Every structure is written in C-alpha cells, then in structure tokens.
Amino acid sequence: DPAIRLLACKLLSNLVRSDVGFSNKKLVSSAIVPGLVRLISEGESPATEASLTLGELVEKSEPLQKSACDANAISSIAKLLNKKEKDVEVLVNSLVALAALSSLREESRKTVIDEQLLPTIVESLKNPNPRVRSAAASCIRSLSRSVKNIRTSLVDAGVAEPLFGLLNDSNLEVQLSASAPICNIVLDFTPMKQTFIDRGGVGTLVKLTDSSIPLLKLNAVWALKNLLFMADMKIKKAVINVLTFDRIWRLLHCTEVGVREQAISLLRNLSYTKEGNSDTLDILDEFGGLFEVLQELLTKSESTEAICQALYVVCNIATSPKHKLLLMSSCLLEAVLRLTHHSEDRIRLAAVWCIVNLSWRSNPPGNARSKVDSDELKESQRRIGQLREMGFEKRLAEMSSDPHPDVRYRAKICLENFRYDFSESVSRQLPA
After folding, report:
1. Which of 79, 100, 331, 421 is 20 to 30 A from 13, alpha carbon to alpha carbon?
2. How far is C-alpha 273 from the geometric centre of its chain's CA atoms?
3. Is residue 201 a contact partner of residue 164, using CB atoms and an 8 Å limit?
4. 172-198 exposure pattern, b = at least 16 Cβ within 10 A, e = fewer
C-alpha cells in the first residue's frame, strides 16, 4: 500500500533527522531515498508528500542528494510538475524538493536545467500563492550557486524581473526566500548585477537593512556586501550615496553577530582598490571615526570572523601612500602587532598582510624600470623604521617559523622589506 510505505519512510526520515541516536543512520537514509523516489515516480496520491519528505531528508547531505539523483528523483519530480493540472501542494512540495536536491551539487543543478524545469520555476515566482512564490525563490537560490547558471541559464530564463520584485512582496516568507538568491546574483561576474542596480535594487536592499527581522536584515547586508565585491568607483558611490556611512556604523554595532560580520565584510569590499588607487580609498575619508571602529573590532570583538575582516580593511587602507601615513599615526598598529600572536592561522595571516602593505616600498628590488622619487623612498624608510622600533621585524622573524605555511611564507617575504638597503636605492634616484 503506497500510503503505508509513505508513513514508514516519513517515520524513518524523522528519526534520521532527529537527535535520536542509532548507529546506522547512513544505512537507513540510503534505504529511505529509493523508496521515496519510487513513490514519487508512481504518481499516486502520496507522491506529493513523498516529494516534501525527500526534500527534508536530503537538504543538508550531498551524498543523499547524489543518491536521490542517481535514482532519477529530479526527472520523477519533473513529471509531476509537467502535468497540466496540479494543485498548490504539488507545486510547493515539488519546488521544495528541487531546491533541496540541487542545493549542494552542481550535477543536480545541471539536471534541473536539462529537465527544462526553469520555465516552470520562473513562472512560479509570479504565482498568486505566497507558498509557491517562496518555494520557487528557494529553487533559484540553489541554482544561483552555480556560476554557469547565473551567467547563462538564469538570465535566459528571465529570472531577474520576477525575483527582484519579490523583495517588495507583501509576504515576509517570500521576501526572505527572495533575498537569499539576490546575494549570489549581484556578484561582480553576473550579468544581472547591472539590471538589479538599474531597477533600484540598491535602495530596496538598504531599506531591508532596517528590518526588524534578523534574517532579512542579514541577507540584505550580505547582498550589499556582494554588490561591492570588486566593484568600480561608479557602483561604490552609488551604493554609499544610498547606504550612507551612518547606517554602516549602525550595522557595525548591530546586536546580531552575523549582521556585524557582514557589515565589516562590506567595509572590506568598499575599501578594496587596485594598485593603491587613492580615489577609491578617499570615499572612506567621509566615514568619521573609522579608525576608532576598527580599533574596537580588533581589540574587543569576540568574533574571529569580524577580527579577520577588520584586519583586511586595514590591509586595504594600507595600499595607498596617503592612507599609510594615517595608519602609521594611529593606534591600530599595536592591535595588528598583538594579533600576530593570535591562535587562529587566518588571523595571523591577515595581520602579516597588514605589515606587508605598510612596509611595502614603491621601488621593489630587481625592478629596474621603476622610477620613484627619493621622497617616496625616504617615506618608506621612515615607516619601516617606526615598525622596527615597535617590534614588528622581530615578530616577523619569529613568524618565519610559524606552523602554518602561508603565514611562514608571507612573514619571510615581509622581512625582505625590512632588510632592503634604502640608502643605495635613494642614491640611485638622485641626480649625479
């Protein structure tokens, strides 16, 4: 009896996903999956509920997603969705299952595309039922984790217009589901990024950063952070004009740890510049109290992620000669030095990168084509002298034996900056 088989599968699935301990969870899971797929393929009344149960079972397990796809789960669900008459439950449960099945596996995402399910998913974004819209947005989230899909399939299917519109949906669950894939779609390499900006997406995200719903606020800040990743000056100014530094300051002091971490990551992306282009960093001059905020993060934050991101903000600021001077006269150097002793490898590595940029000279050894005036070389020498007096050179020598290979390598590279003969370089730059 299909109904009894479904109940048995649901019972075992609930046990597997619960905290009840038994030794053969993997074995039981692998046995449930084919049974659920079989129920879906039979197309009887339990098929709809079997789809939902399958989605819940495999959502967080890549091996189970593979097992389900090997059993033709996606093609079985496609047959349900391709029926001319289907009620809301069929749509919702099928879409939830597809979102789960393709959340972790690129091959599963490819199968969803190959089964020509995208038109149905996109159309479901416009469905009058909010549960259907939410489930469809979850599907887009899973599919948008593929760079190839973002660049081609999703664009061709016309995802942008209906998905962006859901950010203003009257239903909170729909807004939450839609805000998640936006984080992927606004990355620098996606063709939908400019479309999102042109449609006023920045203003919508900024508005959502004021949401009282923590997850919606988090997704909005996350999306803004991704929007600024490798962005040019035009986009950075467009974002800051709407977002404002006052709001960034508030987000950096938000009670939710995740929001704070994303806010400092946003600041990292904002401060990133190619080859020390001070025009980009000049944007940060409008952020009153920036160094104080960074000092607070580096010395008082209990989040290692926030500390790491704050260090990379310092690292980015240190790429500009003008801003190097500001850092050298700040209290941030002592915090950076202290963090070279941190227990986490990535924190020590980020701290070394700060020292690399602060000690970097405009005329590296062996670069005969570099023509830098003596003032710049003398300024580099002065910075290194100050860093040496503070104990950075000694600490770098210790870190050249760090247990982590990346930290060791960067420390050794940085030591070369301290041991370079500046007097010879200056004399070569002066007229004969």
Report:
1. 79
2. 18
3. yes
4. eebbbbbbbbbbbbbbeebebbebbbe
